[in-house]
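== Sequence, C-alpha cells ==
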Amino acid sequence: MTPLDADHAELRAGPHRGVLRVVHSPAALNPSDVGKLASRHREPLLLVVPAASPAVRTAVDAAGWSCLIDDGQQVTGTLRLAGHQVRIGRQGGDIPSRRTSPGRVPWGTFTLVRRLVERPWAGQQQLADATGLSQPRVSQALAALTEQGLVRRAATGWDVTDVDAVFEWWLRSYPGPRGLRTLWYGLDPPVQQAQSVVGLLSHVGQERIAISGDVAADLIAPWRNPHRAVVYAQTGVDPTAAGLTPAGEGDATVELIVPRDPGVWPGPTAEKSPGSLPLADPLQILWDVARAPGPDSDEAVRHLRRVLRDRRQRSTGGQAA
C-alpha cells in the first residue's frame, strides 16, 4: 500500500492494483451509514471498521467496495482491485455491530495549543495568522481552553498557564495525526533510514516532510538510541527503493504517515532543525516518543519535556509559563 494523500491509497496485490479512498470508522456502522457514504462518494472505497454485521457486509458488497474488519487482534475482509477480489485474513463468522459516537476532531484547537507552547502571542489576530484559523474560531477555542485552565490572557497577550500541565493534557487528549500510516523494516540505524526516506520524498518533489519520534528527539534532546523513525509527508512513497520491507507493528523501524492533522508541521516561529533532517512540531515529537517502542519510553518523555520546557524559557527570556 502506498498512501497518495491523507484519504487515498494505491493498493497492489500481484498484477492487480487500484486507487481507493480510505474511510476509517472507530465505531461499527449500520446499513444506513453505508448508504450515506455511498451518496457522498462516487469513487471506490476501502472501509475499515472494528466490526460489521451481516447487513452491513451485504450493503458494502452491493456498493462494490473493499472492507477490512480490524478488531484489535486480527484483520479480515476483502479488497476489490480492478474487479479482482483479494481475501485478507481468515474469514470467520459474523461479528455483531457495536456503535459509539467518535465525534469530530478539533484540529484547530490542537494547533492553537501547539503555537502557544512555542511562545506567548500578543492577541487573537496574531494567533489566527499563526494557526490558519479565523479570528472567531480562535476566540472560541481560547474560551474552551481557558475554562480548562490551560491558557490565560496576560497584559502582553495569550499564553499557557503552566507548560507542564499542557504537556500532560496533550499526552492525554491528543488523538493522533490520523490519516494513512504504513510500517517498514530496515537493517540500517533508524536515523539513516529516516534520511533515506526523506531523500526519496524529496526526489519526487515533496515540500512538506517532517521527522518525529525517537529520531527527532535524539536530535534535540539526546538521551537514548532511537528505536524507530516516524516520517510525516504530504503524500506517500514506496520505501522499498530505500531497501525497506513492509513490517508489522512489533518489528517496524520506520513509520511513514500521511497525516490528516494539519498541525504536525513546524510552526512559523519554530526553531531550525539542528541537523539535516526537517523536524515535526515539538508536541508531535513528544506524542510520538510517548508511544515509541522500548521499555524506557516514559523516561524518554520526561527527558524531552525538560528540554522543551527549558528551550521555551530561554526563547522567552524566562518570562513564559
The longest strand covers residues 16-24. Residues 2-88 form one domain.
